[in-house]
Amino acid sequence: MQQFPDLGVDVPELTAAEFKRRLDDGESFTLLDTRRPADFEAWHIEHPNLRSVNVPFTAFLDAHGDPAESVPEGVPDEPLVTCCAKGISSRYVAEFLAREGWDVMGLDDGEAAVVDPLDAFAAEYVAAADERGATLRYAVDTHVHADHVSGVRAVAGASDATAVMPQGATDRGLAFDAELVEAGEDLPLGEQSIEAVGLPGHTTEMLGYRFGGALVSGDTLFLDGVARPDLEDAAAAREAARTLWETLQALASEPTDLVVAPGHVGPTTVPGKDGSFTARLGELRERLRAFEEDREAF
Fold first, then answer.
1. 10 Å Cβ neighbour count for 86?
2. Model confidence over 207-243: pLDDT tens digits?
3. DSSP conformation letters of 94-163
4. Helix, strand, coil: what percent of the chain each, to 5?
């Protein structure tokens, strides 16, 4: 890991959530991204109220790794917020500029969670959070899966993330240590929290996770259908179907602009206009017959 000189300068920090809120509220910022140019070109933060400038951290060091003698070219002479992939080089650059008289804040590392990760891609989730400068705090399952190997334990083992499972997972064979959550409980994440939402029907322990205006619906509600009720216990499928119907009726009372992010898509599932496999709840209520059927017909 790159080591940077300790300049002993205190720099105020701005969390990612607060930064976005202020941008959305109409405040304008200039963001100094200290990553290498190729990384900046591959992806960088964009917003209508944001101007992004790239000056790599290497420009703030001399050939020996000591602080450069002067502020490098390309640094705007205006208030700045600094950022990078991990918050390390940008913190050094913020201290450097503050020492030189700049009005500067550092963008603090954010936190992230991954829901229903696959074991085969555990390393990719960790890398994705790292590339975005986020600390992976939770690896969460919505339920005990029958169709793939859960990556919760692998992600937690490859990072500092906490493995999280629904409380009822212990009754369905959970064989590793995890933090158990019930419907109504919150998982703190950054300046907000993830709310566990009870969605039984597909399985008895099924939870969804609400964050802001979005709901990760697991295997309960999809973009082109609803869950099967027979996988946990085929003999109890009829009763599970009744429970699933009640769950859908409860969901129907949620705000129509709630963004639903399902756990599965099929070969014919069509993504939304933004390219993501999500939809507003109001759209799904109009599209899916399951919301219109009475309990016995369902």
1. 17
2. 999 998 899 999 999 999 999 999 888 999 999 999 9
3. HHHHHHTT--EEEE--EEEEEES-BGGGHHHHHHHHHHTTEEEEEEE-SS--SSS-B-HHHHHHTSSPEE
4. 30, 25, 45
Q: Are residues 189 and 155 in the same domain?
A: yes
Let me know: does 151 contact 164? Beta carbons within 8 Å.
Answer: no
CA distance 219 to 170: 19
Query: Mapping DSSP to helix (H, G, I), strand (E, B) and coil, where does residue 291 land?
Result: helix
What's the confidence (pLDDT) of residue 1? 44
Residue 271 DSSP one-character state: P
Give the ranges where the chain is alpha helix by DSSP (H): 16-24, 37-42, 89-99, 122-131, 152-157, 237-252, 281-287
2 has a pLDDT exceeding 80:
no
Does 146 share its domain with 206? Answer: yes
User: Tell me, what's the pLDDT at 82?
Assistant: 96
Q: Which domain holds residue 34?
A: 13-107
Cα 82 to Cα 133: distance, rounded to the nearest angstrom: 12
Model pLDDT for residues 11-70, shown as the tens digit of each residue: 998 887 788 889 999 999 999 999 999 989 888 888 999 999 999 999 999 999 999 999
Amino acid 30 reads T
User: Are both 252 and 134 inside the same structural domain?
Assistant: yes
pLDDT classification of 283: cutoffs 50, 70, 90: very high
Report the alpha-carbon distance of residue 288 to residue 189 in Å, rounded.
32
CATH of the domain at 160: 3.60.15.10
